[in-house]
Amino acid sequence: MLYSSKTAAQKRRDFRDMLASGKTLQFPGAFTPISARLIEEKKFDGVYISGAVLANELGFPDVGLTTLTEVAQRAGQIARLTNLPAIVDADTGFGEPMNVARTVQELEEFGLSGCHIEDQFNPKRCGHLDNKNIVDEDVAVKRIQAAAQARRDDNFLIMARTDLRGIDTLEAAIDRMRALVDAGADAIFPEALKSLDEFEAVRAAIDVPILANMTEFGKSALYTKDQLAQVGVNMIIYPVTLLRSSLGAMERVLDTIEQDGTQEAAVDEMFTRARLYDLVDYQAYNAFDTGIFNFEVPQRFQGETND
Fold it and tell me: Contact at 8 Å (CB) between 239 and 213?
């Protein structure tokens, strides 16, 4: 109903148990609260909230323009609507180590189950673009130390993302990952690896969970869950997939309206009213107030509307 039935603390415990199970977990990216509910309904393991998607939803490129307040508030709105654990992209932590500490505590307060902090300069660049600038190891380590020290719930997952592979060798990137684990990272996000062999090498080198970013049009091929599981990946994110799919559908229906003067040809591809009402759970709200859902949901027949 208004919120998930699980507390944030319970979702964090569940997340830790899931990671310990040995399963490879799939986290589609949500950019609206209702999309998180759809992800849960389809029985995925968790919800991912991409910094790029939050920026793009506001009409910005992914170059560090969003604020901690914007990210925490939107991530909290998404996390509150699902019983699944939600992890959020916290970019570079929104500043120096003290800012990173505040970022972690804000995200805890907003009900997130974990976040990742990266080792790019601020302003950062999308992880699959060229010409990224990476901070030195000392700065990267201090960010993760601050994050680990600041959290109050030990089950809140601190993940370290490194973009070093984009500008240096795999060996250098692995050395950076080891240092980040030593600094307190509970998991590692090695961005833009070039092959399954590279994921396998990371798995052999570190003993914490690792995450694979399966974003479209990026540096990594779109490997299957089974392929990634075989090389020891623990979590897979699909950060921009739903946003891209939604915008593609919006563009197509707008083209239909422009060309036909009506959306009629696109209606059969839309959520029906009944499906939408089911997803937002009108029936549960009616248990509190019988005036809310005291009507029949009309079905679409020839000549009737579907709005």
Answer: yes
Active site residue 70: no
What's the whole-number mean pLDDT along residues 172-199? 97
Answer whether 272's CB lies under 8 Å from 300's CB.
yes
Q: What is the token pair recorded at 206?
A: 């570190």
3-state secondary structure of 198: helix
Domain residues of the chain, as ranges? 8-239
Decide: helix, strand or coil at residue 80. coil
118 part of the active site: yes
| Mean predicted confidence (pLDDT) in 7-18 | 98
Query: 60-96, pLDDT tens digit by residue?
Result: 998 889 999 999 999 999 999 999 999 999 999 999 9
| Catalytic residue (one of 126, 176, 186, 238) | 126
Q: In whole angstroms, what is the distance from residue 30 CA to residue 23 CA?
A: 21
Question: Catalytic annotation on 264?
Answer: no
For residues 165 and 173, is the Cβ–Cβ distance under 8 A?
yes
116 flagged as catalytic:
yes
Q: How far is CA 302 from CA 79, 163, 262, in A?
A: 39, 54, 15
| 203 beta partners | none
Highest mean pLDDT among 130-139, 227-236, 297-306: 227-236
Active-site option among 56, 155, 213, 234: 213
Which CATH code, of 3.30.70.100, 3.30.1450.10, 3.20.20.60, 1.10.10.10, is assigned to 8-239? 3.20.20.60
